[in-house]
Amino acid sequence: MTPMNPNTQKSSFGKLADGTPVELFTLTNTHGLVAKITNYGTIITELHVPDRNGKLGDVVLGFDNLDQYLKGHPCFGCTVGRVANRIANGRFTLDGKTYVLAINNGPNHLHGGIKGFDKALWKAEHQAGAAIKFTHTSPNGEEGYPGNLAVAVTMTLTDANEFRIDYTATTDRPTPVNLTNHSYFNLATEGDVLGHELMIAADYYTPADGTLIPTGEIKPVKGTPLDFTKPQPIGARFSQLHMNPVGYDHNFVLNSGGKSLALAARAYEPKSGRVMEVHTTEPGVQLYTANSMNGSLTGKRGVVYQNHAGFCLETEHFPDSVNQPKFPSVILRPDQTYRQTTSHKFSTAA
Questions:
Q1: Active site residue 111
Q2: Residue-number span of the structural domain to which 294 is assigned
Q3: What is the model's pLDDT at position 5?
């Protein structure tokens, strides 16, 4: 590895099909926590945090090498955009003009389209401490979106045992923007996540139709299997969910309203004692429990990923916001700067 400073190192992660080299950055804090990120899709490939006995374990799903990522995967660890989550029928109207996007999820557009930010090779620039700034420009018309969009994503591993992601974006014409990271977490490092105890700071959620497009309603979670206002095992109420395949793929309306950096969720894994707290400036979080994994993917250390091998907490604006006037807006205009911060803080409990 080539040293950049004591907290950041850079190494090769392989090459794209055209021979372009891809890099891997390793961040280490003073407590020994380790994060590894590649500039291909800004994918978080590894995140090692201690259990209650101080033993480090990798708590994110992914692959050992670039080739496996290039073959296709369910958005392991990447930045997704230009618009995360779903847009109904791949269409929206902005300032009187209708835009048609790529369709890549049933009848809908998902996570930026066929070649979203997760498949881009980002430029990387070292920052002070254990931090890397990734930049990418999405050209006008890419995947059907208007405007040239300049995006920066800075990932930092702090000495407070936080993995922090700061996003900014600017555009030269009005366009929708909704960025998030799509890491799959497993605080036990293996097995399923059904026994993880989860709290989500949300009294409401957005009901959706059979293709997971919101109806436009905002309803209380109380009395439903979506009530995580008090910690609940993730799998405890699967039998009450009307999902096929079974599991969560739901957007929660955070109590903070996205007005400041606030607690969105807390996950606790009883066997290891690991705790992860998620704070965000976003108004929503999508809980996804890897419902479609079926053993067809073999990840790091030769682990075969079965159903519910991880869970995602995608901090973002609500799905299909661009077509839902009552939802918080995702439209960015040339005189504005998009900003989003999400942090994952790790600790242990008895």
A1: no
A2: 2-348
A3: 59
